[in-house]
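Ticket #369: bound-state structure for adenosine-5'-triphosphate.
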Amino acid sequence: MAAKKLQETLSKGVLEEVHRYGGMKQTGVSLRYMMEFGSRPTPRNLLLSAQFLHNELSIRIARRALELQSLPYGLSSKPAVLKVRDWYLDSFRDLRSFPEIKDKNDELEFTQMIKMIKVRHNNVVPTMALGVQQLKKDLKPKVDYQDLDEIHQFLDRFYMSRIGIRMLIGQHVALHDPNPPPDCVGYIHTKMSPVEVARHASEDARCICFREYGSAPDVNIYGDPNFTFPYVPTHLHLMVFELVKNSLRAVQEQFMNSDKVAPPIRIIVADGIEDVTIKVSDEGGGIPRSGLPKIFTYLYSTAKNPLDEQVDLGIANTTTMAGYGYGLPISRLYARYFGGDLQIISMEGYGTDAYLHLSRLGDSQEPLP
Ligand SMILES: Nc1ncnc2c1ncn2[C@@H]1O[C@H](COP(=O)(O)OP(=O)(O)OP(=O)(O)O)[C@@H](O)[C@H]1O
Ligand SMILES: [Mg+2]
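RESOLUTION: The complex was predicted; output attached.
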């Protein structure tokens, strides 16, 4: 199917607007700023926030729509990618057709509208993954997919931008909660216990492991459960969940058919001055050194790929143990979004250590691709 060019999809006026907004500078926000601003959700602040988002979301979404139109290797014309692009264009149109936000009523209406935008984009990740899969099929004998650096870099920029957009919308919407949970400022928990979050995430990962294998190795967590710092619990949950899932799978595959007891996965939480670091260690046999450069690319997976066209578009599959190759690259983006990072150190023949660094200071600006 030929790609419908933007010119065919959009009226001239909207097309010009997409280019105009797509050329404007994005404005980053830090965790600390979101926390300070959000701690006073007065009507005036909510109005300011909505006015900022009206412009900022238009810029960020326009940039992504334009980029989706000019991807290498014909990725832009894959049906799934066209679908994603259309979501971005629809959202851009919604934003630009919304009149200037002048008072509380406008602000509430705007908040409803961006809430809908967030829902519209719920399935962007699996849908893009499907598009890349479609490309991979076409290129198969000719190109080693892992060499498609440009595509991996694009996906990094694209998903990073998505994390930012969803954080900004989610934060603004959550600030309208008349009874926020204690110590919560929107998505941010000002006294988040990393040990507690790691415990929940590990339990969730173990449930999936049970479902898949009928048993699950233990996960032991070391660290002070009373230690807290401001962070976004949903982000940390996602990262630890992915790391523990990888470790459980590795240990399970190693010990499934042996009569030895599976060694537990160990999570260590360290509170430094600059960083909080969470190490997830396993004895699951490690990753061969030749595989290491690929683990942060999209779709590098040693698992059977569960993503096929029936599961696709819209119907998000229930979580599986592994198979998309997205766990590590996406977790690293979440870590980097607030100034942290993720590193993987492996000893082939023994096990893997994942170091998740979270910046404690919260003052690094959002990375804006
Ligand atoms: N702790 C680990 N021990 C051994 N191999 C690992 C470990 N973590 C990751 N890997 C290897 O890296 C690959 C990529 O991991 P990643 O989490 O990105 O994707 P996945 O687990 O295959 O799929 P999913 O998207 O469902 O997470 C895995 O398929 C596996 O081969
Ligand atoms: Mg994984």
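RESOLUTION NOTES: The two ends are 29 Å apart (CA to CA).
TICKET STATUS: resolved
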